[in-house]
């Protein structure tokens, strides 16, 4: 069995910590067994490792999340990268075609698809293992996992089986109901309905044959070219709801979607992360990513979240509405994790004559490197404020240290390797200033050393 982990999301529901570059699954707010902070994706990858499934897993994600995944899971984690973000049907189609045409996976191989961020016990993934036998023995086109509800929630979709399970074996699915009222949900639960947790399995040949019927290529490189032609629609709407023979495996353990501040804070091991103080406040959480103190006095049942992207003070019960409130914000991500470290935007100014100036604080982890690259529209000035490194500029490498100022004209090839943990202040000057203004020449430092010579 092969596993496709879907890593997407627009980064709105847990604003201001989440943004377009850092969706909810990358927020390090959960505690592991050692009391260290970890993200949802780190937790899930660890659980897959615990049950022996990590070696069979691949992450389907967008280009904007590649660096974040590598930063949190390592450089070697297998990924299938969408050329653009287009919802779960295109993502699963591309991943399936990759497994078929590039890895040579057989059409009878069972594929399990699941989100990268469920909050579950390890034994949930033992249930995922059961999908393989269920698909092979039931004769169904799709096999789902349904969570036995603990209360009539209006936030989840429901899978309605033919009858209520008494032994935990698979059941034939009759229909689906998406986010009913609490009253309707209570009726569905009496009928044996299960929460839809977005996990399903199928023979690889089932999706490959559907793609052929729809006129799409089942060769990976060709589908990449066609990708913008695929409908921007969920796999549930495009495939699941049109499939006739579906079964569901009930799961009776703990499962939670940590998609809003009120549900996420329920699973946090502490009520405060970062600099500040919370006093005379019940059930209030403070998460502060800035290096300034935040004081919360006499405010109960609230979430106070502070990041370079903004400040949120909200009643926890109202927090699910945040996505709608911030949809109109037109702001670039102010903080990102990258494969080499992180950066934080400190200031942005656009002058009357059109010139733009952007200031960042950048951290590069020891042994990591920035790519050897150039910019067409901007000049950069780097001031090293911490650590030591090697700086490559137009074919020459030299040693740099704290206090050095490096001027990089427009069009000049440059890169940096951190010998120790290194921080620098980067000032970009030019028009337009955008992350896309980068032409990468070499990614690894070994390649850079082969091309550049060391200064004497």
From TrEMBL:
GO terms for molecular function: mannose-1-phosphate guanylyltransferase (GTP) activity. One of its GO terms (biological process) is GDP-mannose biosynthetic process. Residues 3-267 form the Nucleotidyl transferase domain. Keywords: Nucleotidyltransferase, Transferase. Residues 338-441 form the Mannose-6-phosphate isomerase type II C-terminal domain. The keyword Transferase applies. Gene3D superfamilies: Jelly Rolls (2.60.120.10), Spore Coat Polysaccharide Biosynthesis Protein SpsA, Chain A (3.90.550.10). Pfam families: MannoseP_isomer (PF01050), NTP_transferase (PF00483). This is Mannose-1-phosphate guanylyltransferase. It comes from Geobacillus thermocatenulatus.
């Amino acid at each position: 069995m092969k596993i496709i982990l879907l890593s997407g999301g627009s980064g709105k529901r847990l604003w201001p910590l989440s943004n377009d570059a850092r969706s909810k699954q990358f927020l390090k707010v959960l505690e592991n067994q050692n009391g260290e902070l970890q993200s949802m994706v780190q937790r899930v990858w660890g659980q897959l490792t615990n049950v022996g499934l990590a070696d069979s897993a691949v992450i389907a994600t967008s280009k904007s999340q590649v660096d974040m995944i590598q930063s949190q899971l390592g450089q070697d984690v297998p990924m299938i990268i969408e050329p653009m973000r287009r919802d779960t049907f295109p993502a699963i189609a591309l991943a399936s075609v990759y497994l078929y045409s590039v890895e040579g996976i057989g059409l009878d191989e069972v594929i399990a698809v699941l989100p990268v961020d469920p909050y579950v016990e390890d034994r949930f993934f033992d249930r995922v293992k059961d999908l393989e036998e269920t698909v092979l023995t039931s004769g169904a086109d799709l096999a789902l996992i349904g969570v036995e509800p603990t209360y009539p929630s209006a936030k989840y979709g429901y899978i309605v089986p033919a009858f209520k399970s008494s032994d935990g074996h698979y059941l034939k699915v009759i229909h689906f109901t998406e986010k009913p009222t609490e009253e309707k949900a209570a009726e569905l639960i009496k009928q044996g309905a299960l929460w839809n947790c977005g996990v399903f399995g199928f023979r690889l040949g089932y999706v490959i044959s559907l793609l052929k019927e729809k006129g799409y290529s089942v060769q990976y490189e060709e589908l990449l070219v066609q990708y913008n032609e695929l409908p921007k629609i969920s796999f549930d709407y495009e495939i699941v709801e049109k499939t006739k023979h579906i079964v569901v495996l009930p799961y009776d353990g703990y499962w939670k979607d940590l998609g809003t501040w009120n549900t996420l804070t329920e699973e946090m091991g502490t009520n405060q992360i970062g600099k500040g103080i919370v006093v005379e406040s019940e059930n209030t959480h403070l998460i502060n990513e800035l290096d300034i103190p935040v004081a919360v006095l006499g405010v109960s049942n609230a979430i106070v979240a502070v990041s370079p992207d903004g400040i949120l003070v909200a009643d926890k019960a109202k927090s699910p509405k945040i996505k709608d409130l911030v949809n109109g914000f037109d702001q670039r991500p102010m903080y990102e994790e990258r494969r080499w470290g992180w950066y934080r935007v400190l200031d942005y100014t656009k002058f009357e004559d059109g010139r733009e100036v952007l200031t960042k604080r950048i951290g590069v982890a020891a042994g990591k490197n920035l790519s050897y690259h150039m910019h067409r529209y901007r000049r950069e000035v780097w001031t090293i404020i911490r650590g030591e490194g090697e700086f490559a500029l137009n074919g020459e490498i030299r040693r740099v240290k704290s206090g050095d100022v490096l001027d990089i004209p427009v069009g000049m090839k440059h890169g940096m390797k951190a010998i120790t943990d290194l921080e620098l202040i980067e000032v970009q000057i030019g028009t337009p200033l955008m992350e896309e203004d980068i032409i990468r020449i070499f990614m690894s430092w070994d390649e850079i050393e082969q091309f550049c010579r060391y200064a004497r």
